[in-house]
Amino acid sequence: MTQLDHTDHPANAEPRMPGTEPLTLVVGVHLVLVNDGAVLLGRRANTSYASGLWHLPAGHMERGEPVTRSMTREAEEELGITIAEEDLALVHTLHHLDADDGRSRLQLFFRPARYDGRVRNAEPHKCEELRWWPLDRLPDDIVPYTAYALGEITRGNPLSTVGWPA
Fold this sequence. Notes:
This protein is α+β, with helices and mostly antiparallel strands. It has one domain (about 25-160): Nucleoside Triphosphate Pyrophosphohydrolase, CATH 3.90.79.10. It has helices spanning about 65-80, 145-155; strands spanning about 25-30, 35, 40-45, 55, 60, 90-95, 105-110, 125-135, 160. The protein has a 5-stranded mixed β-sheet. Strands 2, 3, 4 and 8 form a 4-stranded antiparallel β-sheet that branches. The protein is globular, with a radius of gyration of 19 Å. The chain starts with about 25 loop residues before the first strand and ends with a strand. This is Nudix hydrolase domain-containing protein. One of its GO terms (molecular function) is hydrolase activity. Its cofactor is Mg(2+). Keywords: Hydrolase.
């Protein structure tokens, strides 16, 4: 019978100094569709996160998928529109420390130069409604980091952090 050598297994490694553990990061992708100074938001419904709040069309990267493909996939799944990956511009990166679970999340915000199709609510089981909101009059019941990121995008800031201790 063959015996496996586990001497190099992570459980047998020397303990690392605090702050040197590799980071496992959740990456979110967000679509920033703007038309005549208004941004498209959806009211989340029947979801484990932020149900009832307004949020950009968004989702998470899936294993083995480049970030641009994640964004085009989410746009098709949620809005029924097709976006070519080369038509996406990264307009903001937000490094978010989630107060609820203490996980570090990298939120990426993309704006498309163009898209094909008509925007529609393609996931009514997850989104109660879609609405265009003026960027200077966002709803009060919006996901807080979404409002923050939209403000940073409006000001032309490409990077921000939220939730981290000073």
